[in-house]
Amino acid sequence: MSLINRIKRRLSRTANLASAIDVANSRESQPVAEAPPPVAPPADPSLADASLSGWFKQETGELFEGFPILETDHVLDVGCGDGAFISFCANQGAEVTFADIDAEKIATVKSRLDTSKARGVHGLVTDANPLPLPDAYADKVVAMEVLEHVDHPPEFLQELVRVGKPGALYLISVPDPVGEQVQKHLAPPGYFEKPNHINIFDRETFERLIVEAGLVVEKRSSYGFYWTVFWAFFWTCDQDLLASPRHPLLQSWANTWEMMLTMRDGPRIKKALDEAMPKSQAIIARKPQL
Question: Which CATH architecture fits 53-224+282-286?
Answer without folding.
Answer: 3-Layer(aba) Sandwich (3.40)
